[in-house]
Each structure stands twice: as C-alpha cells, then as structure tokens.
Give the backbone structure.
Amino acid sequence: MKTHTLLMPLDMHLHLRDAVMLENVAPLSAYSFSGAIVMPNLVPPVESKEDVIAYKERIMAAVPNDYFEPYMTLFYKNYDKAFLLDIADEITAIKLYPAGITTNSEGGVNSFDIEEMRETLETMSELGIPLCVHGETDGFVMDREAEFMSIYELLAKNFPNLKIIMEHITTKAAVDMLDKYDNLYATITVHHLLITLDDVVGGMMQPHLFCKPIAKRPEDLDALLGLALEAHPKVMFGSDSAPHPQHKKESCGCAAGVFTAPMALQLLCEIFEQFDKLDNLQAFVSDNAQNIYGICPEFKEVILEKRPFVVPENYSGVVPMYAGETINWAIESVE
Ligand SMILES: [Zn+2]
C-alpha cells in the first residue's frame, strides 16, 4: 500500500467559530494538524487582548487530548502603538477584512487610507506581526479579487517591511502579483485547487461548494495549481475551512464557506500525487509556513495511505466537501 508521511502539518487559515460549533470542529483540525492560524471573525470580533486570551482558552478547552497550537489573530482596526505593544505576545497575525465582504466582517475596513492606517501598519512592521488580508472589493463578484490587487500594491509599497499575506487566493491576477513585491505572500485552500465556478453553479447548484471568494475560471485554477504543486516558497496551505450548520447552507440565502478540515490532507495527497508532486507537499503544508511566520510547531507525524475513503455525510451537523463521496487517500495514523 502506498503511503505518504507529513510532518507538523499547518493550516494557515482556519475558522473554528465558537461555542458548540467550536467544540465540534476544533478536534477535527487538532487531530491531523500541529497548529492553525485561527481567524477572528466571531460575533463580536476578536479585537482586544482579553478577547484573544479568552478565545484561545476556549479553543484549548475544546481540544483536550490533542497537541494543537492555535495561532491567534486579531480583527484589524486602526490600533495605536501602545495597544499593539501590549498585545503583541498574544497574537501571531492581524486579519484585515474589507467591511461587509464576508461572514461577520461588518466591522472591517471601509477605506484604505494609508495615512489613517500608518501607525498600525508601521508598528506591525516593527514588531514583525504579519497582516493577513481578505482581498476582495465590493465589485462584481468574479472581479472582486482582481480589483483588490491595486490595494495589495498600495500596502506592499507603503509598508515594505510588513509581511502581507494574500489570503485564499483564487485568481491568476493574485498569482501574478505574488512575485512583484518581496513582502507579499499567499495562502491557497484545497477546494480552490479542485473546483471552478462550474462545479458550484454549472449544473445543479452545490451549496456546500459555495464560498467567498467564489471559485473562478479554469485558467485561475491552473495558475493556483502551478504555485501550490511547486510549493512556491511564498505560498502556504490555508484551508479556509468554514463550517456552517447544514440548515444555513441548504437554505434560501446560503452561507458562504466550504468545510474541509477533516479531509484536507487526504485531498492534498490526492492532488499532489495526481501531478507526481508529492515530494513538494511537505513544503506546501508546513515548511513554507514555518519559514514565513517564523514558527516552530510541536512534532506531529501524519501517515496517509492510498486507499478509498468515503467522506462522512456530516460532522455533527456540518456537511463537508465531497460528503458521501469516495476519495483516494486516507489518514492511516497520527503520532
Ligand atoms: Zn476565511
């Protein structure tokens, strides 16, 4: 039986939610990942030192038997230097949402006024705190990410010492932007390496594949695969696994988000094997992130095996990607 071993997998963009949902989904990530960048878009958002510490405690309480490091993030607002100095030790990154662009982002940034943002972003540069960005405008849905490239350029040029992470990129435009500035990095999900908009709405509408940013065109998928399969050193895996209760997805007014945490590594093995690039997967799921963020996760060894695995229909009321379908890799053991 063919196997593949991954050491200290990291999920650099994860939604763990809160309360019962947190208790249900956190153990699924903690099982196979050494750590994850945990997104702060709760209601209300995570925007104080007390919020960060309390949320981290709730996450740790939800994963009592697994070693798992939640790398905490703060919801971006314009903060002053004293606040950032005080909170720096508690956070790994700060996440910026344009106002209203995705789930629970109403309190995000309304205008990208560099002078208003300067104190925050210069302090983050000095302290080495990366800025994670949901890069979409409020334009036409297929063009939102491409339109945001000018804002990435503005930020990258004005703050050359700030590490800026273009989160969950979905377009060739973002792929082309990556190497234009030394301080731009990117995360890529597993679902954006598998689907285009055709898979979401080309036939019967598939609510469990509906997410923000939406999947794009075949040429975008090819550009993303090009980066991921070569494990470009500025690119990391970030699942953007975003659980919603089944009734919020299978309803009029479907919530955005694809739930992939429990089978992300299996699907990545399938993709990388298909293109004969399994040797690059370790860099994509861990080594690049360790280098970019300067983090050193606790040891975890995940052995995957090439055998049929039927994806469960749901996990505590959350329907995963490919529910009920058979994929070609399974997790054999975790140590
Ligand atoms: Zn996200």
Notes: The two ends are 19 Å apart (CA to CA). The mean pLDDT is 96. Residues 79 and 120 are 5 Å apart (CA to CA).
